[in-house]
Write a structure and sequence with these properties.
The complex is a heterodimer of chains A (162) and B (133). Chain A is built from three helices and six strands, in the order E-E-E-E-H-E-E-H-H. By secondary structure, chain A is of the alpha+beta class. The mean pLDDT of chain A is 91. Chain B contains three helices and five strands. Chain B starts with 14 loop residues before the first strand and ends in a 14-residue tail after the last helix. The chains are: A alpha+beta (162), B alpha+beta (133).
């Protein structure tokens, strides 16, 4: 993936050198689904969980192939994510990010589950994020960064039990 | 109901739905903008939409914590809010609500008074963010 989301960037425009953002949907004025282009790559962004406690939100970034873009152009606009993110027919990597007030504070590459329905996908993503944050917290971190990771971890755990 | 992505004139009698989520994934219904983090409008949906359908439109899956409340275009307009149809690629029923316009042409600040006025337009005034102090 050449357009890696970077911490500190806006969650819907997360990579450096973005030359285009195509917003497919928004909520309260915040882009929640769309495509961005950076470094010659096209990538889908989607706010998977927007109401996470403590002003956090969880985002998925998927690098797109030509076939993916064809899927998007042909799919029912109200159901773009099925066959791409939901019920993916093949193994693929995405990036999941946690944003605080829509600025990315944590990101990790994640193996998107095959053929997962939305509930299963969200559940597995939260388990992955919880484990990834635990690993981060087990390392040496500056105090402010540690506090941020602890807050993110608590928010993800709250979501995981519901 | 609009049949494409062209913005339509919204009659006063048209019902509108607001989407929210119960804790822990949500904080109820938004009743004001958080401009400091990029919120520029309050999003509503054309029609009296149930929580499941609203969840599919807004978050793209069925959230078990989804909730909705209902108002009308006329109620919001009589309270001073600006209400416009603003369809997106994946939600052609999207409606934007903006603060009242001041005589100067600027938008009014979305303060506590405006938040209370916004909540009062709905079937259930359960927005959780009015600062009563």
């Amino acid at each position: 993936m050449s357009a890696l989301p970077m911490m500190g960037n806006l969650a819907w425009a997360p990579a450096p050198g973005i030359d285009n953002v195509d917003v497919f949907d928004r909520f309260n004025g915040v882009p929640t689904l769309g495509l961005f282009s950076a470094g010659g790559e096209r990538e889908l962004f989607w706010r998977a969980l927007g109401y996470v406690p403590r002003r956090m939100s969880i985002w998925v970034y998927m690098p797109l192939t030509g076939a993916d873009e064809h899927h998007i152009s042909c799919a029912d606009p109200s159901d773009l994510l099925t066959g791409l993110v939901f019920r993916s027919p093949k193994e693929r990597y995405v990036t999941v990010g946690i944003a605080l007030e829509y600025r990315l504070v944590f990101e990790r590459e994640w193996h998107l589950p095959v053929n997962a329905d939305p509930r299963q996908l969200i559940d597995e993503m939260l388990v992955f994020l919880s484990e990834a944050l635990d690993i981060s917290l087990s390392q040496e971190l500056p105090p402010a960064r540690r506090e941020l990771m602890r807050t993110a971890s608590e928010a993800v755990r709250e979501l995981s039990v519901c | 109901m609009p049949s494409d992505r062209s913005p339509q004139e919204l009659p006063d009698g048209l019902r509108l739905t607001q989407y929210g989520e119960r804790p822990p994934t949500g904080e109820g219904f938004r009743c004001r903008l958080r401009e400091e983090i990029g919120e520029t409008e309050i999003s509503l949906i054309i029609g009296d939409v149930d929580a499941s359908a609203a969840s599919m439109l807004v978050v793209k899956y069925l959230s078990p914590h989804a909730m909705t409340r209902v108002t009308s275009v006329g109620l919001l307009r009589r309270a001073g809010f600006v209400v416009v149809h603003s369809p997106s690629k994946t939600n052609r029923l999207h409606v934007s609500v903006f603060p009242p316009a001041l005589p100067t042409g600027d938008q009014a600040e979305w303060d506590n008074e405006l938040a209370k006025r916004f909540n009062a337009c709905f079937t259930e005034a359960s927005g959780g963010e009015v600062d009563e102090t």
